[in-house]
Write a structure and sequence with these properties.
11 helices; globular
Length: 312
């Protein structure tokens, strides 16, 4: 079993950490450097955790738990206007980042108004590309209840609703609800507000824990971190200047390169003696041609396809 932890410290002797991660068969999921400070999110074998933690402390850093590492989460407001995109939505996104997730803040094209709010098929398809989706609505109970039914019920991935009042009759439209966080024109700094942000992180973690259990019943043919390690040396990804050019999902990855230009090369790469295109479903992102989505087939899917080929 692999587990994910984060190193938070200085860049001094960080090369030793990278070498140890490679020696134990781990993978660096994400690293962020700011001046002389460094954070490294890594996936390592459980049996080697004590060795890695000891080195992190020896070089003057701290080890933090990151329960949402290896996930990409969309945080959505009704629109991008200042009325619907207040400070708390950024605080929620930052809280999820501190828990290890890669977050993207979005706004709907026509999410405004209780009676006119809507979500298009294209927007639904985009949100379904992520591991989970967090919707942040407003302070009016009737508006929240109406919009929750209109906007959240069509999304396939796990959803969490954040709003001011406690809504009624919307339990079936989402996987979790966090009330007490509405629109306001200031950051969430007080003790009670920080507790609410912790609650958001906990609820998202619980929702994704259920998804992880479902995946473990029929796990992917290869772990996403193994494909990430394979793709890191692919020149278009290695030279990509976008933040986090490879983003892990629970059941695959997002590679931030053009599908038209790169999908054939990616499909022809080999993992465990098989073409990547044979053990993964590789498709373009619904957001223009901005990235390539790699969904790893389950072990049962690969076994079934092998049996069909053998019978032919």
């Amino acid at each position: 079993m692999y587990e994910v932890i984060m190193y938070d410290g200085g860049v001094y002797r960080s090369d030793e950490l990278y070498e140890l991660i490679e020696d134990v068969g781990g993978v660096v999921l994400q690293k962020t450097r700011s001046a002389q400070m460094l954070t490294v999110t890594m996936s390592i074998p459980s049996e080697d955790r004590d060795v890695v933690v000891a080195l992190c402390k020896d070089i003057g850093g701290q080890v933090k738990e990151v329960p949402l590492a290896g996930t990409e989460i969309a945080v959505v407001g009704p629109t991008l206007g200042r009325h619907h995109m207040p400070h708390p939505i950024c605080d929620v996104a930052e809280q999820l980042r501190r828990c290890g997730a890669v977050t993207v803040v979005m706004g709907l094209a026509r999410g405004r108004g209780k009676n006119t709010s809507q979500i298009s098929l294209e927007e639904t398809s985009i949100l379904d590309e992520y591991d989970a989706c967090v919707f942040m609505l407003g302070n009016f109970k009737a508006c929240v209840e109406t919009k929750a039914d209109l906007l959240l019920s069509k999304i396939s991935v796990p959803t969490v609703l954040i709003c001011g009042p406690e809504p009624e009759g919307v339990e079936g439209t989402c996987d979790a609800i966090v009330s007490g966080i509405g629109r306001k024109a200031s950051r969430m700094r007080s003790v009670e507000e920080r507790k609410k942000l912790d609650e958001v992180g906990t609820r998202v973690e619980e929702v994704l824990a259920d998804k992880k259990k479902a995946i473990e019943e029929d796990p992917p043919f290869v772990h996403p971190s193994e494909i990430k390690a394979l793709l890191e040396n692919y020149p278009p990804i290695d030279m990509c200047l976008r933040p986090a050019p490879l983003v892990m999902h629970l059941d695959g990855l997002r590679a931030k390169v053009s599908y038209d230009e790169c999908h054939e090369d990616i499909e022809n790469m080999e993992v465990y003696g098989r073409r990547l295109g044979d053990v993964c479903v590789i498709t373009p992102s619904k957001i223009n041609d901005s990235s390539v989505l790699i969904r790893i087939k389950t072990r049962s899917q690969v076994a079934y396809e092998d049996s069909l080929k053998a019978s032919q």
